[in-house]
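Why do we care about 3D structure at all? Because function follows from shape, and shape follows, mostly, from sequence. That is the central idea of this module. The next example makes it concrete: a single protein chain, its amino acid sequence, and then its structure expressed as tokens.
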Amino acid sequence: MKKITLTAFICGFLFCQSIFSQEFSSASAYLDFVSGEQQEITQNMWKYNKAMAHDKSDRNVERKRKNLIKSVEKSIEKIEDAGTFEGEEYKKEVLHNLILYKNLLRQDYEKIIDMKAVAEKSYDMMEAYINTQEMTSQKMTEAQQLYEQNFKAYAKKHNINIVDNETDLGRKMKISGEVFDYYNEVYLIFFKVNFNESYLMDAIEQNNVSAIQQSANALKQSAENGLLELEKIEAYKKDRSLIKSTRKAFEFYIDEVENKIPEITSFLILNEDFAKIKKAIDDTPQRKRTKEQVDAYNKKVKEVNAAVNNYNKLNNDLYEDRQVVINHVNQANEEFLARHIPND
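And the structure:
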């Protein structure tokens, strides 16, 4: 009884390497051919996963996806041209899986690319983008499982012993999937809170006191809820860097709402009062202006002049502190992926 190794790739991709058209004198030879077709796509799939983790260029990531598609298409062509052994049924099953992979890479992953372009616009879009990634990965996993079932069924039919073996690349793919799942879970919590902060910044830019107060309350509540969610997440292999950087961001947002926003709204209210007094003065002919009006106007001018420097300093300090926090989150994210996803 001949033994053939079946490589089990957890992330759900079939890996193949093209060879010239040929005929097969035995079932074991045909299975060797099908297994051998895996290597080139294995390498390209790993390059694609590494690029998603380590490459900051979307163009490079997309180029690797297209290379992966070419690898699958090349394997389809070679398997179609090659012969088979005792019937076409298994060959059709292999081609069915390869075509499924190709369609997923072309259609589903292209959809993911389009969704990524707009994901930052809202929490719902970001959540949909991440969920679509996970669903597509699950489709690939299910397709791989079907391939393995067909492979083993064909081997059993022809009395060929299959030895399951997770290769080094298979191990790396499994690790990559686990790391991205963990990363996405933490990032989605961060994104939801951070997006609320962007509403607050818009309200401040528009000098809309009512919107500032509403957005500040929403930000504080979401940050507090985010801290509770972080408490439920365990460290990834004793690495708490994502949790720590995200927690620090949430604590910054809460401090911002509690200690900085009241000063901002106070100045804006003061400025609104000044605008009303100024309009009243401007609308009143100079000869008809009362001493009380003039005194109130002059007093308000002094108050605004005294407060404006503090307001500008507060905004500058907030901007700088916010940049430090966001940069820390981004750096922690990059270092986490670089640390846990193999880069060889």
